[in-house]
Prior knowledge:
Layout lengths: L4 E5 L4 H12 L3 E6 L6 H4 L4 E5 L5 H8 L4 E4 L21 H20 L3 E5 L11 H16 L6 E2 L8 E2 L5 E7 L2 E2 L6 H10 L2 E4 L5 E2 L2 E2 H11 L8 E5 L5 E2 H12 L4 E4 L2 H11 L10 H7 L20 H9 L4 H11 L3
Parallel strand pairs: 1-2, 1-4, 2-3, 4-5, 5-8, 8-13, 9-12, 10-15
Antiparallel strand pairs: 6-7, 11-14
Amino acid sequence: MKIERICILGGAGFVGSRLVSQLAARGLQVRVLSRRREAAKDLILLPAVEVIEADVHDRQELIRHFRGMDAVINLVGILHENKVGRVDLPGARRGDFQKAHIELPRKVVHACGEAGVHRLLHMSALGANPNSRSAYQRSKGIGEALVREAGMQHIEHENWYLNGPKFIHGYGLDVTIFRPSVIFGRGDSFLSMFARLLKVFPMLPLASAGARFAPVHVDDVARAYADSLDNPATYGQTYDLCGPKVYTLQELVRYVGEVTGKPRRIVPLGDLLSYLQAWAMEFKPGKKLMTRDNFFAMCVDNVCSGGWPSVFDFQPAALEAIAPEYLRADTPRARYEGYRENARR
């Protein structure tokens, strides 16, 4: 069956907005479910894109909005939780990771089954592991397992993490799972965050400076999703997505300083000081820069064991070819050049 109608959860987010644009450019009909329609206002103007306010955690709403769709894409994910719970014990207090990364995929799978949708693409994360010390990675690993099982037929297996029926049965969905490394691009929350920090601090104590990443560009992640939709070779597969080069966190921060014209002294912290810094940052009001859970996640290298998946007929972009364009855009010189261009001088 040719896929022409796609429903996306998380379509107004960093990856989602790029994916919606790519799908619309291919002439596909896209339905975006968003908690607030205003948050997706840039997508409303795109041809064949429908933005609907919906509670994606309401199973009946999911079923209603999935009906008539050829595929569902779940991109919902969070890096930090405000309401902290346990994701390793059945019946424990539920936190934000449990709700977003475990309960929501389970509801999506069941809603696909009820609505007659046979194609499901799911966003996991590199390092996802039900046994990780990081609650983020544990929840992602459990959610990934739920989705993978949904692609199997006639499953009858006891799952302690479901918090639901004792036994589940696979829906036989055509499932594809993606596990990207850290994603970069204009509007990211990674390189751009360090660019802001380097503007303020003349010296930067850096936790987990030796942590290794293989940053992948947001447009490449979106294209991998788009190219997978109609490709039967991707059914039942899990793809690790990494950029072409591996960096330590210290190397990335140093590079950001060079690009933005704000080279700073970077002081790498050992494991104990890194842990204590992460703990202290948890008490910062507002948006968190780092938590102890992030520290545990960075204890495992965020890199791919193989190269770019051969099923995709393009190669991922190098960070150095793209990052300077948006990192420099907020420097005084870049703003001045922008003013000159607008004034046609």
